Amino acid sequence: MATIGYARVSTSGQNLESQLEQLKSAACDKIYQETASGVKVDRPELAAMLDYCREGDTVTVCKLDRIARSTAHLLTIVDSLEKKGVAFKVLNINLNTSTPTGKLMLSMLAAIGQFEREMMLERQKEGVEIAKKAGKYTGRKATAKAQAGKVMELIQQGLTKQAVADTLNIGVASVYRIAKEAKTA
């Protein structure tokens, strides 16, 4: 029976130290750690941790959102742990799925977490729309299209499309698209 920790941050600019200290204090025998978005389902260290744990083990995380960002993904993870006879523990809310109350709380918290994320994305989308209407948000500049004249000039000089892409530091697909648009114009 082992206590297995899982720590995750979303970006390389974030730090795992706080989570690692908490997991060590929780007497974790082995700790898996990675830098990846919680929305991603195919995280290598998460997969390795889920494969490693055995009946009687306990998987421990510092916060619920460290292991999953959606209710469906969280419940899938917990269900697979349950089928293996592995308990799931969340330190900051003292949740333990080895009890019926813990299982109920987990489902409720996961739903709230997903709701919060969806609300945040909705607010972000609304903010972008407002900024676009005000002319303050124009999106990313089209780097390849801005060089369409140079692309066509290099193609007419006899360079291959790959050579044009390399010369202008743009994608070869963009070169093909610009050439195609020039033919139809």
Q: What this model shows, in words?
A:
There is one protein chain. This protein is an alpha/beta fold and 185 residues long. It has two domains: 114 residues, Rossmann fold (3-Layer(aba) Sandwich); 40 residues, Arc Repressor Mutant, subunit A. 51% of the residues lie in helices and 12% in strands. Helix 3 packs antiparallel against helix 4. The longest helix has 34 residues. The chain is elongated. The chain starts with a strand and ends with a helix. The model has no long low-confidence stretch (mean pLDDT 89).
Q: Would you state the CATH class of the largest domain?
A: Alpha Beta
Indicate the radius of gyration in whole angstroms.
24 Å
For the largest beta-sheet, the strand count, sense and barrel status come to: 5 strands, mixed
Total DSSP E strands: 5
The largest sheet has its strands arranged as 2-1-3-4-5
CATH architect. name of the largest domain: 3-Layer(aba) Sandwich
Order of H and E elements? EHEHEHEEHHHH
Question: Could you report the average pLDDT, rounded to the nearest whole number?
Answer: 89
Head-to-tail CA distance between termini: 70 Å
- Morphology call: elongated
